[in-house]
Amino acid sequence: MRKFKTLTLFATVALGMSMVFGGQNHAAASSIKVIGKNGPISSDVAPYLKKGTVLVPINIIGKLGLSNLNMSWDNTRKQVRISYGKVMITVKVNEKYGIIGDEGTPLAQPAQIKHGRVMVPVRFVGEALGEPVAWDAKAQTVTVGSSTVSSHAKSALTLERIRVLSLPRVSLKEQIHAGGLMTVVCYFPVGKADEYFVKEENRIDYYKVQQGRAVQIWAARTTYDIVENKGLPFFPYKIVQEIGERPSVKGSFVYYKNIGAIAAVYYGIINEQGKAKQLGEADGNKGVIVDIPEEKNYMKH
């Protein structure tokens, strides 16, 4: 049987300050800020206050600046597992208890899903990771750990890829619908930004940049059966239906796998033989692409 213990909850004064929101805790969602070890943390879904508890998208936990922190999402059980050193935390959507190791801990508010993101009580997770958590009600700011602000300059190629993914898209007249959008994988040819593939569950699309727009050239429905696709050495899944003109590509690709529920991106390289190598984890906000220093090793000169 699991043991149950209680972590420190928000101070009474913090609870009392929720009154300034006129009883509508969710109204403050857009103004709540989170600061981690590397400074302010952004997210595409805003944190919000519910009955004195600040809930944040789980991807914010991955951006606190803690080395060797890993997260995984179990879609069947609707739960997130977070490992950090010897600490293992499990938080299940709509469950009143969080698990630290094998001990259950009552939650001030259970985890929830909002706009496709898992929202967790930040104080519970932060303190479970051994980090101090402070709530400034006046500034509507949560600070987790000590801030040591740093910056990271993105390369010109990364910035161009980010720009390209934000371009207006022109779709084919006929469409193939995906089964869901919880996991999205974006593929770029090594060293390039003017063409890319996007896989959303059981669909893949191919776009080329033309006259300031991303034009859809090809789309296909896929299964998870592993096959060898002619002209697409980087893509190992069986194609069962396609529209448009299938491209024929060569060379290595970079990929960014965005797991929507926890907003975590896993990135890496797929070589010319189709062998994938994961190189790291990055910000999971929609449209965010990061530098992959190893990419230069795969560029042909």
Automatic annotation (TrEMBL):
<feature type="signal peptide">
    <location>
        <begin position="1"/>
        <end position="27"/>
    </location>
</feature>
<feature type="domain" description="Copper amine oxidase-like N-terminal">
    <location>
        <begin position="40"/>
        <end position="144"/>
    </location>
</feature>
<dbReference type="InterPro" id="IPR036582">
    <property type="entry name" value="Mao_N_sf"/>
</dbReference>
<protein>
    <recommendedName>
        <fullName>Copper amine oxidase-like N-terminal domain-containing protein</fullName>
    </recommendedName>
</protein>
<dbReference type="Pfam" id="PF07833">
    <property type="entry name" value="Cu_amine_oxidN1"/>
</dbReference>
<dbReference type="InterPro" id="IPR012854">
    <property type="entry name" value="Cu_amine_oxidase-like_N"/>
</dbReference>
<keyword id="KW-0732">Signal</keyword>
